[in-house]
Specification:
Layout: H1 2-33, H2 38-54, H3 59-73, H4 77-88, H5 94-113
Length: 115
């Protein structure tokens, strides 16, 4: 009788651990495959572009600024690359993205000009 309860608990524990690990794996896979929203891509792209202009002569500061931009946006360079790869499969999608990028760049430049 003692062995039977022990083995039953053991299998319940093992099943629970397997279920928990599977759940963690599913959450991780979902996060890693989640698509980056267009607006977030545009925002990060514009900030990176402006940083390249500002720190063109100092590669160390540019590297630090890029790292800061990615951290603040909670985006990885790999997510940005996946976004680009996905949109390269359907080039017509770039039209709206480039419009948003140009608008945001112009808006940022106007803000810099006004005192």
């Amino acid at each position: 009788m003692f062995k039977s309860k022990f083995f039953k608990r053991k299998w319940i524990l093992i099943g629970g651990l397997i279920f928990g690990c599977g759940l963690i794996l599913l959450i991780w896979l979902h996060r890693s495959s989640a698509t980056l929203p267009e607006d977030k891509f545009v925002d990060v792209y514009v900030k990176l572009s402006l940083a390249k202009e500002l720190f063109a002569s100092d590669s160390l500061k540019l590297k630090e600024e890029k790292k800061k931009i990615f951290q603040q946006a909670q985006v990885t360079p790999e997510e940005m690359d996946r976004f680009v790869s996905r949109y390269n499969l359907k080039p017509e999608l770039w039209v709206s993205i480039w419009k948003k990028i140009l608008e945001k760049l112009e808006q940022n430049r106007q803000e810099l000009k006004t005192p």
